[in-house]
Amino acid sequence: MQPPPPPGAAPGPGPQQIDNNMTMSIVALFLFWPLAIPALINASKVNPALQAGDYATAQHHSAESKKWSKWALIVGLVSIGLVILCVCFLFIIAAANA
User: Fold this and answer.
1) What is the pLDDT of residue 13?
2) Does the residue 16 lie in any domain?
3) Does residue 4 fall inside a structural domain?
4) Residues 66, 28: Cα–Cα separation, whole Å
5) Average pLDDT for runs of 10 along the chain of length 98
6) Is residue 3 in some structural domain?
């Protein structure tokens, strides 16, 4: 345990804050859940690692959560775009044959 700083001294750096990406993981869950599950698992491991003082592990889990969330968002948005494109194409074909 470190002694407190002397009076009038600037406070030292506090505990490092690392984003757990939980919000992005939850949003990704609605777009493409198979890739969002590892994101949620890693996001849930960030805060316990920070509380234990293991910043390297917390940073690793944060990066993994961000990676899986991004992939889930990309795959989900691309698949939604493809569905919209296919539906529009089918409407155009149906209108042309009517």
Assistant:
1) 52
2) no
3) no
4) 10
5) 53 70 94 95 95 94 96 97 96 92
6) no
Q: How many helices (H) and strands (E) does the chain have?
A: 4, 0
Structure tokens at 76: 């989900």
Please give the residue range of the domain that contains residue 76: 22-97
| Whole-number pLDDT of residue 4 | 56
Domain membership flag for residue 5: no
State the residue for tokens 């490092």. 16
> For residues 73 and 25, what is the distance between their CA atoms, to the nearest angstrom?
9
C-alpha neighbours within 13 Å on the C-beta side of residue 39? 25
Q: Is the pTM of this model over 0.70?
A: yes
- Give the Cα separation of 29 and 35 in Å (integer): 8
Name the domain count of the chain: 1
- Residue 47: its pLDDT value, please? 94
Write the Ramachandran bin of 53: left for phi over 0, alpha for psi from -120 to 50, otherwise beta.
Answer: left
- Structure token pair of residue 80: 């939604």
